[in-house]
Protein 1
Amino acid sequence: MLLAVAIWLLENSPLLRRLLWRWWYGRLARQFTQRDWTFMNYGYAPEEGVTPLALSDADEPDRFCIQLYEQTVSPTSLRDREVVEVGSGRGGGASFLARTHQPQGYTGVDFSAAAVALCNLRHAAVRALSFRVGDAEHLPLPDASCDIVVNVESSHCYGDLGQFFREAARVLRPGGWFLYTDFRTVADMEKVVAALDAVPTWERVERVDITARVLAALASDDVRKRALIDSLVPPRLRGLFGEFAGLSDGKIYQGFQNSELTYQRFAYRKL
């Protein structure tokens, strides 16, 4: 009964949802500082026959997570652009895109001060890359200050999604791109689309359902993730981390399998 009440409160209280995720990601950044854990997304596996993405030996272990970033930014070029990633987490995606896509500047914004501190240490050597603390719903950036806003599997943590979309549009220059991906229940995804389309200053360029490819990535990466959790996480927390990571015996994975959850990516362009 208490669990049901707690779930209802989190689903219906933007403030509680925001506070919960702020606490959770801050705890992860403070307690788990291992250098080889820099990604937290569910990943993407291309269809058979697609030429594999060329990766360095150092990046290869994170192939599926990196491929999700590549899919998200695929509608446009990042080269010589000012890029902002909102919800940059442990910085793996920001580091990869900054190293391989040659933006003029790449700024990761995250509400966890601990995560930002970790990123500024872990990725200090990457050219044109920086991280700063900021709230997705109140971005610490001037109007029309960047060319691209990237948001990967982060928005389900926000209290007011419409406010975030309006903020993303505010900081984009005319002609700029909002490149976005996340998962929801099927019904809630339509609410996300309605909120995206309600922003008057941009127009939709792409909407692609990538659920099957995310599920394939989760299945392919399951053994590696289990080994990583076993090596990093105390036994009492492994079940929680397994659910968080989308392991194959968890509710998230089963939700994708049963078509209760959908994972989609979007591209919008500022007018």
Protein 2
Amino acid sequence: MKIIKPSFTILNEIAPNDMLKNIEIYGRICYKSEGSITDTSADRFIRRIIASGHESVIEHEKLTVKIICDRGVTHELVRHRIASYSQESTRYCNYSKDKFGNELTFIMPSFWEENTAEYKKWVQTMQIIENTYNEMTSLGVTPEQARTILPNSLKTEIIVTMNLREWRHFFKLRTSPKAHPQMREIAIPMLKEFQERLPTIFSDIEIN
């Protein structure tokens, strides 16, 4: 059994200047103000249209992220409709095989310290699930049948593509104190990286 923490990787090669220049070109069509484009006008123009609520313009650009988290988090993640998803399938992946190290991988819960009784009970339960899963597959049970015992804590990998407007919507919802703690655990550091790499688009989103 393996226990890991959630993580993410931005898969695009982000070229902020090119992305912002493209958005400015698309956005100025609305106002027929293409003549106002300069080498430095994109940042100011985009910040202004975002502040005014004209966010449809930034839908023309997108970002793709690989997220490693538990399956419970992905159940909330895929509720964001304007996105594309490709997720590791428990129906076809047989975790008792060598390519998976003959073991299940679980995401460490963020709300228990490792030395607490709650965490130790969780680890014990995950071990029982792994043992049972391997016993079932050794009896010839298929992965799509054996997955019925797999918990929300099971590690999964999911590729997520959203346009920039939907990413803004995602971060506003999923970094909120009202969001699930394990969703915030992945969404907050992701937003911070987005803010660092594309401040024009994301710097106005506050983290509480």
